[in-house]
Write a structure and sequence with these properties.
Length: 121
């Protein structure tokens, strides 16, 4: 068997590394929407800090900052937990967007889709 040419090996490595997506920004403003019944959209703005050991976030409404009590980041997944409301937002980072569901845990759990992207005012 003939050995592979070094240029071929470099080309394969560069191609594979280009296919991997960039991680989400570690500290950024995010602009998103939550889908509600009847095709209504609820816009939201949040600040997300994914730096370890304790990721944090808060919603922004004008100058008001509402902390998100529990934030968990693992690879391309981000979860926001609102224990006092029996709710959570679970999203996956893909192609520059955090997409997922807002879940209200009740007898009949309700799930609404959301999407958010990094935002520079």
């Amino acid at each position: 068997m003939k050995p592979l040419h070094p240029v071929f090996i470099v080309a394969v490595v560069l191609t594979l590394s280009a296919c991997q997506q960039a991680p989400p920004p570690q500290q950024s403003l995010w602009k998103g929407t939550l889908e509600l019944p009847d095709q209504k959209q609820l816009p939201f703005l949040l600040y997300l800090d994914l730096q370890q050991p304790a990721p944090s976030a808060y919603f922004l409404n004008g100058t008001e900052k509402t902390p998100i009590p529990e934030v968990y980041a693992n690879g391309d997944s981000v979860t926001f937990v609102f224990s006092e409301y029996a709710a959570a937002m679970k999203g996956i980072w893909s192609k520059g967007t955090l997409q997922g569901e807002f879940l209200r845990f009740r007898k009949d759990t309700v799930a609404n889709k959301f999407a958010a992207t990094p935002f520079t005012p």
